[in-house]
């Protein structure tokens, strides 16, 4: 495992200046003992479609490349995590980029969990109003993902881009100035990730409409909100 020492006022942990980070390329199985806070999550973590993993002070991100069938498999494994809340966010494509070696790779889906120092800081500082402390899986509408063929297990919170924006907007009005600043930072990052122009903007609008229709229909079927 590659170990990286980062000197920064990290977005994830703004009160911690010295962050210890590790990363792992590929899908070498990670130990079940590392994920006892999220029983059952390790099956999704170790799925063969994982291409990269990054950990910093307890916050861990897993990045995957795969078609719809693979996404459905990981989604099913993710949903079997035995914690009270698990969230699925469906987002417009292309997916975010990760750098593996010297190559930029577009991911199709990712999983994030907050533990250790990061989880404690989010809960203590009220920043959980901005960032999730429960496990979250994001699926992007990339060329590999067919939205209509996604199989959504029961029991998940289903969100989309507009839900994230509303969460940040609400947090930017919070009484706590630290929460407001945290929300502003994340809103800027969100706007940067989904900034589009010309034909790409038209595609973004189309994808947002398709995702909204998909999520709304799913909520009607399941009686969820």
Task: Describe what you observe in this structure.
The protein has 225 residues and is of the alpha+beta class. The chain has one domain. 35% of the residues lie in helices and 25% in strands. The chain is built from six helices and ten strands. It has helices spanning 42-45, 68-79, 116-125, 161-171, 177-193, 198-222; strands at residues 2-7, 18-25, 50-56, 59-64, 87-92, 97-100, 103-106, 109-114, 136-141, 157-160. An eight-stranded mixed β-sheet has the order 1-2-3-4-8-9-5-10. The longest helix has 25 residues, at 198-222. The radius of gyration is 17 Å and the shape is globular. The termini are far apart.
How many domains would you count in the coordinates? 1
Compute the number of helices: 6
Strand order of the largest sheet: 1-2-3-4-8-9-5-10
Question: Which assembly state applies to the chains in this document?
Answer: single chain
Question: Helical content, roughly?
Answer: 25-40%
Biggest β-sheet: count, sense, barrel? 8 strands, mixed
Contiguous low-pLDDT stretches (5 residues minimum) are 1-18
Radius of gyration: 17 Å
Whole-Å distance between the termini?
41 Å
Helix-strand sequence: EEHEEHEEEEHEEHHH
What is the SS-derived class?
A: alpha+beta
Beta percentage is: 25-35%
* Number of E-state strands: 10
Structural shape = globular
Mean pLDDT: 89
């Amino acid at each position: 495992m590659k170990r990286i020492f980062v000197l920064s006022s990290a977005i994830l942990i703004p009160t911690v200046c010295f962050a210890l980070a590790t990363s792992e390329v590929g899908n070498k199985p990670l130990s079940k003992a590392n994920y006892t806070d999220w029983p059952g999550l390790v099956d999704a973590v170790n799925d063969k479609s994982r291409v990269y993993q990054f950990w910093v002070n307890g916050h861990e991100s897993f990045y995957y490349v795969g078609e719809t069938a693979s996404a459905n498999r990981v989604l099913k494994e993710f949903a079997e995590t035995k914690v009270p809340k698990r969230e699925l966010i469906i987002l417009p494509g292309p997916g975010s980029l990760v750098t593996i070696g010297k190559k930029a790779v577009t991911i199709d889906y990712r999983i994030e969990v907050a533990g250790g120092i990061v989880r404690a800081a989010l809960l203590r500082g009220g920043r959980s109003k901005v960032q999730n402390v429960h496990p979250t899986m994001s699926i992007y509408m990339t060329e590999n993902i067919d939205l209509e063929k996604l199989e959504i297990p029961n029991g998940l919170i289903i969100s989309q881009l507009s839900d994230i924006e509303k969460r940040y907007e609400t947090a930017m009005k919070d009484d706590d100035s630290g929460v407001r600043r945290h929300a502003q930072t994340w809103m800027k990052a969100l706007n940067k990730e989904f900034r589009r122009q010309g034909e790409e903007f038209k595609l973004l609008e189309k994808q947002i409409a398709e995702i909204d229709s998909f999520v709304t229909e799913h909520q009607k079927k399941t009686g969820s909100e």
